[in-house]
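Bench log. Compound arrived from synthesis this morning; before running ITC I wanted a structural hypothesis for how fructose -6-phosphate sits in the protein. Inputs:
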Amino acid sequence: MCGIVGYIGKRQACEVLIKGLKRLEYRGYDSAGVAFSGDSFRIYKCKGKVSDLEEQLKDKNINGCMGMGHTRWATHGEPTNNNAHPHQSMNGKFVIIHNGIIENYAKLKSGLEKEGYKFASETDTEVLANLIEYVYLHNQNNGDSLSCVDAVRVALNMVEGAYGLVIMSEDNPEKLIAARKGSPLVIGIGRGEYFIASDATPIIEYTNSVIYLNDDDIAVIGLDGLNLTNLKKVKQIPNIKKIDLKLDEIEKNGFEHYMLKEIYEQPRAIRDTYRGRLNFESKYLKLGGLHNVFSELKEAKRIMIIACGTSWHAGLVGEYLFEEFTRIPTEVEYASEFRYRNPVINKGDLVIAISQSGETADTLAAIQLAKKAGAIVIGICNVVGSSIPRETIAGVYTHAGPEIGVASTKAFTAQVTVLTMMAMAIGQANQGLTEKEFEDLIGELYAIPDKIEKILNTSNHIKDIAEKIKDSTNSLYLGRGYLFPVALEGALKLKEISYIHAEGYPAAEMKHGPIALIDEKMPVIVLATKDHSYDKIVSNIQEVKARKGCIIAIVTEGDTTIKEMADYVIEVPQSDFALAPLLTVVPLQLLSYYIAVYRGCNVDQPRNLAKSVTVE
Ligand code: F6R
C-alpha cells in the first residue's frame, strides 16, 4: 500500500517519477505527489490520482534530474491535498515520502509539539519528517553536528512501526536517502543513474539490476554511487540481483482492463506454474523449492495455512486438497487472527503462508510468530524477491506474472495449482494417494489450462447474464466441498469491484439462516458441477427456486437436470472434482468483471482498496 518512486541520474526526473507512479498506482490512489530538489525544494501534490497530479504539473517548474514521487492509500488522515505526500519538515530541512505506519506517531507528535513543532497534516509521515529535522537541528544547536543520514538513523531508531522511505535534505541536496523496515523498497542500478521504488515495475524499463533492501537498511544514493549501512551504522554489502521481468508483462496489451487481461492469462499462468515441475508423459512431479524440507513435510503431523483475502480462499481449497491427498490434518486461518490469538503451534508443524504480493503485513507477522514457535514455515508467493519468500525457509513461486488489477484473479488459480501439486507430492510420498490416483491427477491438472480456454470462449454468454443481474443490490453464492471456497471467492470478487453486497455460503447452510433473504430480486449463484454431492446441490437449487430466487448455475458440460431448473446456466468442462475450483472460479471472475463494467465502476482501481497490503 502506497507506492514510492525515487530517481537520480541524467534524465528528467519528472518523467521517470510519473511513469513509475502510474505503474504503482495499484498500491493506492487516494492522492499523489512529487518533489524535486534544486536551489529549494519544489513539492507538488494533490488529492486524487496520478493523472490529476499530471494535470497540475502542466504549468509548473518540474526541471531536474533528482526527485521522488508517491501515490497514497490513506491510513492516517483522509485523502486531502494536505495529507498527500511528500511531506516537508517544519523548517524545510527534509522532505519525505513514506509507505507504512509509524505506530508510536502520537507520542512522538506530542513530544515534538512541546518543542514547538506545528503540523500541517494529520499524517504519521509528517511526524517522522519533523522528528528527523528535530534530531538534526537539536544536535547542531548543541554543537555536535550530525550528518543528514545520521539524523535519519537516530530518528528511525526512535520509531516503532513499518516504513519504506525516501528522503531528500536541504543540506545535502545531491543525495537521496532510502530506508526500509517492513515495507518493501527496491533500488535499480542503471549506468550513472539510480531508481528507487516499492517494487520493480517502475524500474524494469531502465535496468534489470536491482538491490532489494533488507529491514533496517539505509542507503545513501548520489551520482557518485551508493552507500549501504544499517540502523546500527554497520556497513552492508549490496546484493545485486538480476530481475527477469518484461515490460509487456505489466502493460494492458490491448485489453480494456488489467483484470480482464489477467483473467485471460490464466491458462498461461497455470502452465507456467507447473512447467518444469510436472511432466505429463513421465508422470513426474517435483517441487524444487521444497527439496530441502521435503522429508519433514511428509512427516508433518499438522498443516496450518495462513493468508489473507483471496489467498485465504486458495488456502481453504488447500485444506480440502491436503486432507484428501495426504490425510494430514490441515487448518486454514486468517493471518490477522492467527498472529494475535496465541495459537497452539508445535515444533515440526508445517505452516504454509500464501501471498500474491509477498508483502502482506499480517501474513509476514504470522510467519514470524510461527517461526519463533519452531514450525517449518514455507511460502507460496508470486512476487520474486518479496519479503515473504525471504522470511521462509523454502517455498514455491507461482509463475502467474505481475498481477496489477487490484482484484486478484490469476494469482488465485496459480496458488491453487501450487497447492494441488504440493498435496499431490506429499500424498505420493506418504501414500495418501495410490500411484494410479497420483498419475490420474497429473493428467487432470495438465489438462486444466485447455479447459479454462474453453470457458473463456463463452465470455459473451457470461456477459449477457451479467447484464441481466447488474442492478441487483444483493447476491448469494453457494457451493459445497471444494466449491465452497470458490463461492466465497466469487462473492468477494463481486463486492470489491461492483460494490454489490454478496455473500458466499456452504450450500447446506442456507437453510440455517440465509434462505430468509431469498426473493425474486436475489440472484443466487450456485456452483453445481458433477461430484459426489451433486444430488444435494440439486435439492438446494430446488429450495431456492421454491422461493423464487433467480438461479445462475455453474454446471458440468452437458448437464440437463439443472438446466431445467435454473434461470441461467454456465457450463464448464468436466474435471476431477478436486480440481473443479480451478475451472469454476473463472466464470465467477468474468461475471463480476462484466457486472462492474456495466455499472460503470473502475474495475482496476476499486474504491477504498489497494493491492499489497503492507499495513495491518
Ligand atoms: C482480493 C485481493 C485481496 C488479497 C489480499 C492478500 O481480490 O486481492 O483480498 O488477496 O489482500 O494479498 P496477498 O495475496 O498479496 O497477500
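What the model suggests: The chain has a mean pLDDT of 95. DSSP finds 19 helices and 26 strands in the chain.
ITC booked for Thursday regardless.
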